[in-house]
Amino acid sequence: MRGTRGGTMRGERLYLTALRRGVALGLVLTALWGGSRLVDPAWLRDRLEEPAGLQTALLARQLGGAEEKPRALEGWGRLILAQSAPLAAGEEEVLRLRAEGGGSQELPGEEAHDGDGDDQEEPDLQPQAEEDGVVEMTARGKQEGKYLWGEGVYLYNRTDLDLDASVLSQGAVDVPLGEGPQILIVHTHGSEAYSQTDGDFYEESDPYRTTDCTHNVVKVGEEIATVFRAHGFQVVHDTTLFDYPAYNGAYDRSKAAVEQWLEQYPTIRIVLDVHRDALVGSNGEVYKLVSEEAGNKVAQVMLVVGSSGSGAEHPRWKDNLAFAVKLQQGLVRGYSSLARPIVLRNSRYNQQLSPGSLLVEVGGHGNTLSEAIAGARLWADNVARTLLAMKEEQ
Hints:
Blueprint: H1 2-38, H2 41-49, H3 53-63, H4 76-82, H5 85-101, E1 134-137, E2 147-150, E3 153-157, E4 183-186, H6 217-230, E5 235-237, H7 250-264, E6 270-277, E7 286-293, E8 296-299, E9 301-305, H8 317-334, E10 342-344, E11 357-364, H9 369-393
Parallel strand pairs: 1-7, 3-10, 4-5, 4-6, 6-11, 9-10
Antiparallel strand pairs: 2-3, 7-8, 9-11
Helix pairs in contact: 2-3, 3-5, 6-9, 8-9
């Protein structure tokens, strides 16, 4: 009886195993058939010609795009994966590619730094719920979508203007550097601050903001000014908090200040409005923008150029862009990924006041102040060397 009962149980197990594998195989075949109906045939052909190309590509679609956080399969997906050695082999490769691929510029929730009336509402940043909610990313350009590639740099076109890569070489760099103050640093949103996860504690005026200028972007601006001065440049650093106590109208107030400084020191040829960015994912995760330089993680830095895309008069925005391209060329030669792609926006950001005006985003609100300072110092050192080379050519 025991032999008969044991044989029956073994038979049932074999039957269930065969049934499970049959169902799994059927699901795999159904998924492949469905994929062939939904996916472009040329895309399938290209993937089939690559080593492990089809399984990796199909898994990539299931596991999420390059902009998404890598995730593992669960439930039925895990069952199907277990029954297919080629698909199982592809999962590790897809997750590795996702982990190494970093992020892209196209992330939701980017805090707007729009001038010309676009900064009327303060961005609603929520306090960080937990440290695990911070996602590291390294923003890089790519030769598709709204990215333009030329002159050795990437430009992300966020304007309503129909542009091609030729725009990167259409302007003229018009920043003659003579005697007297040459560089002005301001902070339209000076109360912008960073994550407090590294022990850099401060009293918040709002989430990720503080009026303590030893802990916000004014501190970062002073570090930039210090590096420029070390290279022999004369720098005016305006530490006024134009966004406090009222955020609305900050660009109008900083515009008036820049006009006064330009009138007081006509030798100023470069105006840098230093900010920090803010990137929040669809699930509330906070992104920190990092680059690894000489074994250390530092905040990435991004140049933002205004344009006439909003309809406001800005006849020399291409000259500002040419200046940004000149600086960016030195940055991409000097560092692996310190510089995020240049971003071109509709609004002017007061850059119509001088052809040497740029908005500089140092890290994001997920970065720490120490990361921001480290990235800003590397950025300023490279930019200073580019400016010195330009001065010698004058």
